[in-house]
Amino acid sequence: MDCYITFFYGVIIMKKIFKFILFLVVVFGIAGVSYQVYSNVRHKTKITNVNKNKKVSIVALGDSLTQGVGDPKKAGGYVSRTKQVLNKKGYKHVTTVNYGIAGQRSDQIDKRVQNNVKGLSSSLKKANIIVLTVGGNDLLQSLQSNALVDGKAKFNSRMKQASITYQAKVNRLMNDIRKENKKAPIYVFGIYNPIYVYFANVDVINQYVKKYNQITSGVVLRNKKAHFVDITPLSYGQYKSKAQKEKLVESSDEVTFNPLDILKLDDTKGELNNYISPDDHFHPNDKGYNYMTGRLVSQLFRFNDWN
């Protein structure tokens, strides 16, 4: 009898978890994820033979993170900030083109490259730095379509297949970008979990954010002059230390917590992650885009394959 009680209890808990996941992905979504504020970027690598009078053309493409959704300055997120940082470093001839469109998956971004939508392919040909944000909406679609699948094993099986499909799509996207420009380095941002600070115990979201980042970084590393830009720390915001993260986990209960309570929490305390916009609770705010800019600029000077 005890084993049957345990079994049925487990089924009930599993259904609650999957309903909870569905709520999370529908309401909040997954945003496409070492702290270093862009205004204080330091580089250990000494750069030599730098021509600061050269023309630097940055072409950015991707989803809402490239478009700059959540940026309170309405300035285009990390794209315009990167130009500002390079200008301050003495690069006076920097141009940027922003081809970010909110909500787009890897295959939709790729279609724009293939069809030269709004001159995207033409711009890529002229770029000497290419920046891409991808993966967040692919993961969101997978979670949404599988959140109510009956059983953990079946859910994981379908998510595994979705991961394989994503890998093929992002690989095709990288190949198509490279067809347009064989020389310019490509910098690809990872994704993060924007609601971690609310639901630190919901391991399934972190699990697949990590998985998709591994897929993206793997594809990137197999391409010449391509670099992965990790922004996972945005998930944790100001909760940087091990003790702070453990406290978040201790205060989170994904089984008994009512997801609708988060709406009341938002009304009284706003966004709990200091790097995320209070307007939608998953895109970066000013501080978040500064962080993304810092990570990108750090990688630009680390590899220095555009200078």
Automatic annotation (TrEMBL):
Keyword terms of this UniProt record: Membrane, Transmembrane, Transmembrane helix
Matching InterPro entries: Ester_Hydrolysis_Enzymes (IPR051532), SGNH_hydro (IPR013830), SGNH_hydro_sf (IPR036514)
Domain annotation SGNH hydrolase-type esterase: ranges: 60-289
Family annotation (Gene3D superfamilies): SGNH hydrolase (3.40.50.1110)
Membrane listed as a keyword: yes
Pfam families xrefs: Lipase_GDSL_2
GO MF, one example: phosphatidylcholine lysophospholipase activity
Entry's transmembrane regions: 20-38
Name this polypeptide is given: GDSL-like protein
Organism this protein belongs to: Apilactobacillus kunkeei EFB6
Organism phylogeny: Bacteria, Bacillati, Bacillota, Bacilli, Lactobacillales
